[in-house]
Design brief:
The chain has four helices and ten strands, in the order αββββββββββααα. It is an alpha+beta fold. The strands form two sheets. Strands 1-2-9-4-7 form a five-stranded antiparallel beta sheet, with no helix packed on it. Strands 6-5-8-3-10 form a five-stranded antiparallel beta sheet. Strand 5 and strand 6 form a beta hairpin. The radius of gyration is 23 Å and the shape is globular. The mean pLDDT is about 90. InterPro entries: Cupin_1, Germin, RmlC-like_jellyroll, RmlC_Cupin_sf.
Amino acid sequence: MMKSSNSALYLLSCLTVLLLLPVPSLSADPDQLQDFCVADLNAPISINGFPCKPASKVSANDFFFDLSKEGVTNTSNLNFSITPANVLTFPAVNTLGIAMNRVDYGPGGLNPPHSHPRASESGVIIKGRVLVGFVTTQNVYYSKVLKPGEIFVIPRGLVHFQKNVGKGKALAYTSFNSHLPGAVILATTIFGSQPSMPNEVLTQAFQVDDSVINTIKSKFSS
């Protein structure tokens, strides 16, 4: 009886320790094991992340990035521009689990519905009035028009958008808890993939005729 009680106590102790341990899956990126790891984007090997540039080749300039310049917004009918500061453009954030974007919106500009598979997002409106919305996995839509100084948060992986609803230009800065959050733009992913997603799949999913799918695909053809 005593042996059974001791075994139960030991099992309970083990479970308690496991519950108190940090859970790596709660972090978007793994913790770094050194002060910094400036990415070597030209390294010949490919890993889940990027190898470190030798410390002897790291300079002060590696740790600074300019997000002060306004992006060009009139290159498409979406009328918006993103200037990313992720590991691909700002190698110093490699392994740090952070990234930022500057998002410029022309009048009526739209950052179309998309999701970030590897990060949650937070943002602050600097100029203009921006409608921010997202949809949960329960198909519930949340939205609000934000003014300068107001912030928003988008949980990881949820579909969301931002649209300039003010009279002039708008500006926002967004941040992520991943050095490379990724972006799945719904319209481009569904109708502009290469090779193309089969029409029989899309007509059934959207419950429309083949001609409608072909018309939409033609707008996203490269």
